[in-house]
Amino acid sequence: MARRIYTLAVLLLLPFALLHLLWRARRQPEYLRHWGERLGRYGSRRISAAPVIWIHAVSVGETRATQPLVALLRARHPEYAIVFSHTTPTGRATSLEIYSDQIGRLYLPYDTPGALRRFLAHLNPVVGVIMETEIWPNLVAACRQRNIPLLLVNARLSARSARRYALLPGLTRSALQGFAAVAAQTEEDGRRLQALGAQRVTVSGNLKFDSSPARELIERGRAWRSAWREATGKRVLLAASTREGEEALILEALRRHPIDRLLLLIVPRHPQRFDAVAELATKLGFKLQRRSSDQPLAPQTQLWLGDSMGEMSAYYAAADLAVIGGSLLPYGSQNLIEACAAGTPLLIGPSTFNFAWAAAAALDCGAARPVADADALVAVARELFADQHKLSAMGEAGRDFASRHRGASERTVEILERYLIPAAR
Question: What is the CA radius of gyration of the chain?
């Protein structure tokens, strides 16, 4: 009964979801493409003649986290085709950037029974892998009806999200019990998922620790920093994957408490906000230069806007110090593991619920420093820029932290193989 009510609500909200796509398309025209897929319409062309491992990765972060997992699967099980489903155009573009035509990709439809029947009939996967915390009741039910094992991997669940899921206990329990296996990032994530009804829960670690920064990107970032240092003598403070409202806080704090010979590098989390951030910085009087201009840094430039996709490792390598976006305002923080792997010293704001364990561990080992707000960020940055020894020690602590927690990909593949090997026979 709970799922029937849920399905009715989804159907009633579907027109508004389509209107939301149109609204998002004002800034990202890519939302206008592949509309049929969002309703489970994929045409008659078969996506693969080989048996399919289907992986659902919502957007950019989840897609990038699959790289070590996919590499292991392709090495051990080349007889399978790998097909990704996504929710956002940026996720789809990221899988194209990373994997090119080596995998298939499509949009996961809205969670309606008819659309999901068409999706699964088109894809016909041997097994499904859902990244992180995408719990769609009708999707889980549709996989059970077709006897498709569905795994929730790299699973995380913050206390806040757990409270939200607990508001619909019957629906949540039924959906979680439908997963053939759950591979949680941490013990805390596992306990929260089990409390809501998940069964067959294993703690496998975080796949993002297994992603090594591309050497080409690290070298690109180091080349930028060397050129900038030679041309201007400036230190680089990176605001990485910032969310709406955070850029204004940082820029206003720097106007109140300027740091001599500072280059601020801002990389907004969402590409549709690049122009808005550029407009804000100009309005506040900062001399701006954009990565997309592909020009050498001018001596008068105060802010370099990272308006590109797929270069975050290069931005971390270019920075002397970075603040993790999403942590200054209550967004729960963005991924800080990539920064640690690159050896970039970190500042972390008070909101970390999306990466609570990783943030606490990075602070404990000395890879990061906490900051209460943007003014504290500027004060701590000034202190650290005056002490290269501290910065170097933080960077080394970050590299060591990242290397000590690798291995989640191997453990996840071992779980997945329980469902692959019988199918291959």
Answer: 22
Q: Report all structural domains of the chain as residue ranges with CATH numbers, in order of start.
A: 25-205+407-424 (3.40.50.11720), 215-404 (3.40.50.2000)
Average confidence score pLDDT of the chain: 93
Q: Are strands 104-107 and 321-324 parallel, antiparallel or unpaired?
A: unpaired
Query: Can you read off the two tokens belonging to residue 356?
Result: 């609570």
Give the catalytic positions in this structure: 62
Complete DSSP assignment for 102-113: GSEEEEPPPS-H
Residues paired with residue 104 on neighbouring β-strands, in sequence order: 83
- Among 313, 319, 368, 362, which residue's Cα sits nearest to residue 342? 313
pLDDT tens readout for residues 215-265: 999 999 999 999 999 989 999 999 999 999 999 999 999 999 999 999 999
Single-letter residue type at 194: Q
User: pLDDT over 90 for what percent of the chain?
Assistant: 85
* Euclidean distance between CA atoms 156 and 205, whole angstroms: 10
Identify the sign of the CA torsion 172, 173, 174, 176.
positive
Distance CA 238, CA 342 (A): 13
Q: What is the C-alpha to C-alpha distance for residues 329 and 214, in angstroms, rounded to an integer?
A: 30
Crossing angle of the two packed helices 374-385 and 246-256, in degrees rounded to 10: 60
Closest CA to 10 of 125, 110, 116, 145: 110
Angle (CA) 56-58-60 rounded to 5° is 115
Q: How far apart are CA 319 and CA 337, in angstroms?
A: 15
- Is residue 125 within 8 A of residue 148, CB to CB? The reply is yes
Angle at 79 between CA 406 and CA 411, to 5 degrees: 20
What is the number of residues in the chain?
A: 425
Contacts of 268 (CB under 8 A, 6+ apart): 241, 242, 243, 247, 274, 277, 306, 307, 325
Do 323 and 371 meet the contact criterion of CB atoms below 8 Å apart?
Answer: yes
DSSP state of 168: S
Bridge pairing between strands 125-131 and 150-155? parallel
